[in-house]
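Usage

Read records sequentially. Each one opens with the input sequence:
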Amino acid sequence: MSLIRFERVRKRLGGRDVLAGLDLAIEKGETFVLLGSSGSGKSVTLRHMIGLFRPDEGRVWIGDDCISEARGRELERIRRRFGMLFQNAALLQWMTVIENVALPLLEKTKLPESEAYEQALRRLELLGLADAVEKLPADLSGGMQKRVGLARAIVMDPEIILYDEPTSGLDPVTSRAIDRLIEDLRRRLGITSVVVTHDLHSALAIATRIGVIHQGRIVEVAAPRDFVRSENELVRSFLEAQYITRRGAWENREGTS
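and closes with the structure output:
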């Protein structure tokens, strides 16, 4: 059974169908990258996964849990299966790095403060941020802020992490470093990742599969090496817009098929 499933999900916003009968299945342990033009429904799809939006029709499943029908404590229980890295990292500027990372544990669990900070420190060490624990977000580069946001996203040991444009606003070198962190978390911790991005180079580097959403429906799903060979006109336009040919370094990446 797929870990995340959309069954003919429809959502109407602003007088138009943003999701128009969307079907989607994401497997446990994979990194699924969702591509699409602005307004295609990418972010709305993410919001349905975590129960921030409810479908007008259809259902969204997280394992055996129907999150689209859950309420109250049941919804909160399902949401604890998720971590999320926001586009701008969404760090609280008046808190230190370690305070930002420990915050979910302090707010949502009964852990003693000392243990919450200890767990936060372990996540920061995992991401190479042990020297930044007492710094404020304003003292960090954009790439370091994203890494702190990622440490906070994994501090409660989620099964699934949702990434909203994780490389947006970063230079190419820092973007590839974030890609390596996403891939490392999948390999080391077995985390299932869902990534919304416009960065096709990033998608090809980290994805086990890439899906393209257009007018509220999934029109293509493929592993990276098959994606670059797709004859789908929309896929070809994405590839050509970012100067990607049918051959590239991703062809030799371990794990593609």
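Summary fields computed downstream for this record:
- Strands lie at 4-13, 16-26, 31-35, 57-62, 65-66, 82-85, 160-164, 192-196, 209-214, 217-222.
- Residues 92 and 100 are 7 Å apart (CA to CA).
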